[in-house]
Amino acid sequence: MESIDTRNLINYFAEQKRYVTLDELCNYFDVSQRTIFYRIKKANTLLTLKDITPIKNVRNLGYILNAQAISAWKQQNINENKDLQHNENKQNRLKEIIWKFFIQNSPITINQLIDDMDVSRNTIIDDLKDIRQNYPELKLNIDSNGHLLKSSEEEKSRFIFNELQKHNSGLIAHKIDKLPFPIIEDSKVKSDIEILEEDISSRFTENAISKLKRILKFRIWRISMGNMIVDIDITDNDIQESTVNVLSAVTDFTQRYGIGIKSEILFFSELILCSQADVVNYVTESFKDKILDVAQDIVNRYASISGIKIQSPKFVIALINHLYASYFRSKFNFDFNSEALSDVVHKFPEIVKFVQLSCSPLAKLVSKPISINEIALISLYFISYDDLSDNISHVLDRNDNIRDSLQSEVLLVCTSGVSSSAILYSNLHKQYPLITFSKSLSIDELNKILRISNTAKLIITTFPLKNIDLPVVQVKAMMDSEDYVKVENQLRYYFPQLFINREKTLDNLISIIQINAQIKNISDLRKDLDNYLYPTKDTVKRDKNKHNLMDLLNRSSIKIIDNLMNGTDLNPIIKELSEELEKNNIVTSGYCDDILSLIDKYGPYMLLSSDTFLAHAAPSKHTRKIGIEIGILKRPIKISVNNIEEKIKCVIVLVPGFHQEHDKALAQLINIITNRRLYDQILSETDTDKMYKLIKKSVQ
After folding, report:
1. Residue 539 has what pLDDT?
2. What is the C-alpha to C-alpha distance for residues 264 and 229, in angstroms, rounded to an integer?
């Protein structure tokens, strides 16, 4: 199976249509020459399999993919996109069939499905097989009368809620909206949800409210057919042990729609607790304290792994607010799904890996592993964090949203409530610092702003907007290159003064400043203005400075340590590994003292796994360049972390960079450690050369 890296390399050649040097490839993809050679080899293997002429290397010119090969490759991509479209159509057809089981109680025959779906018998038989395989929770069964779903009513409703989470404007959402009964006035449901919010002193996101409206309509429809939720795993105590007024408020809410069955009320209570909210005040004080400790622990762990120290109180408050829903979703087995989450995992693998390790306190509180979707959601907060200003209040503090946004030139609209707009703001603000972007706006807030005198020229939204007088650019929550082009074109049109020739812009600004102020150093002023107006230059430089693990690691960086005389103390081992870093001119002697002072202050809590301890300090005057030393212990050392005894078999001393140049290398190392089969094999080796080869092979 071809990798994303391989396809990206071929796509790059297809776009360039020229000779590309090895240095260009290394700089563009931010990898070593060895990695480029490896990727070209893999790319040529893939091209050969597809009967396409491979990439050629012409001495003194570079590498090239010829015109015929480019044309053939692009045609392959078109065909694959058609296959993808076919697959999407098939998925919609499967959902259509599932929906038919929801809107009637009697079994459905294959002949009925053939007529309704207008496809062949073989297609329906294959679709039913796929439903059994892809959606086992629905328990599709067959009897003498036809096919039917044997799942419980709660399982059916969980399926619907999860589908709404994946795509709240997709096929299932459309089907619910088209149900002939019940006829519910949108304004009434909105008013009743506002009463519910007031009763539990909380406020849901627009997306969450929309899901609750639809699941309410679905439940009323199913109940009208005689399908009630009668058996449910949770009890009153499961809700009330950590919340205040939720059960009574939900009871009042559901009874307004004729739903008084206890199991139905408990199910709705689960949905309320699992829904995204901007404001959460429905938890007990003791539970609030637990989540506060968890949030602070996650932030500390993340800072220790990533080297980014987060001190913003607003960040911690926002994270706490999010962790309530994360806790309940994990506890009640509602996995949050969103189209953007897979993009988060693929585009920010280092941060997601760091957050995954940092979230062990949450997993401990829930007594369950935290799903990768939840990790990706939590990662959004860390991705959007601006370590330069130590602030993310532009997204998370909504109290003055309308007032502040009246002065914004570009309005950002996002209804998901999962901070995807935080990344949108962060990227756009850094790239266009002279344009004023709003905080994340809901649809209601946007409508209020547009009814008042404002300065907005453009709207950028992740949600389709209609009947808006201002120009609108719709983008994905995780913007891709096509989205950036759309945004850039609009910004160039509405803010032409910001896209004048770079040198001319700087000259004009300096001339204006000279008229009104005395300048001691024009050269420094020009450099500062250049950095401010064109910050992407620094971003590109930072990205290119990121190192792979094998750039930092050599055979001598791995040591087997005979710790017979120090069987219970980490400090001598950390000192021994730090001394090796000193010998290699990576740090000065003070670096080890920095690490030990942190351990004295916070305790030995930074574990990459139950048997691996990471020791490092923030970059300082003791740091000369990034580096790493790995010590494999002959005898495990017992340490206590949060009152739990751990046996440390490996100690890693890391020297991070000032601009997170170590991120990629550390993420690769974490991938090795979390691959227990591989890692156990490495730890069991008695030859450091074999350890090095195992690590090198896994990274490539």
Report:
1. 42
2. 6
Q: What is the Cα–Cα distance from 691 to 52, expressed in whole angstroms?
A: 38
Q: Which residues on adjacent β-strands are paired with residue 141?
A: 148
Q: Are 250 and 265 in contact (CB under 8 A)?
A: yes
Residue-level length of the chain: 700
Q: For the segment 503-558, what is each residue's pLDDT rounded down to a tens digit?
A: 666 676 777 777 777 777 777 777 777 766 655 544 444 445 678 899 899 899 99
| Dihedral (CA of 29, 33, 35, 38) sign | positive
Residue 296, helix vs strand vs coil? helix
Closest by CA to 435, choosing from 451, 453, 463, 455, is 455
SS3 assignment, position 345: helix
Closest CA to 414 of 473, 469, 460, 480: 460
- Listed in sequence order, the DSSP H helices in 387-432 are 393-396, 401-405, 420-431
Identity of residue 287: F
- Going from the C-alpha of 264 to that of each of 165, 270, 452, the distances in angstroms are 20, 10, 42
Residues 392-409: tens digit of each pLDDT: 544 455 555 677 788 889
> What would the pLDDT profile of 208-243 be if each residue is shown by its tens digit?
899 999 999 999 999 999 999 998 989 999 999 999
Measured distance CA(653)–CA(249) in Å, rounded = 52
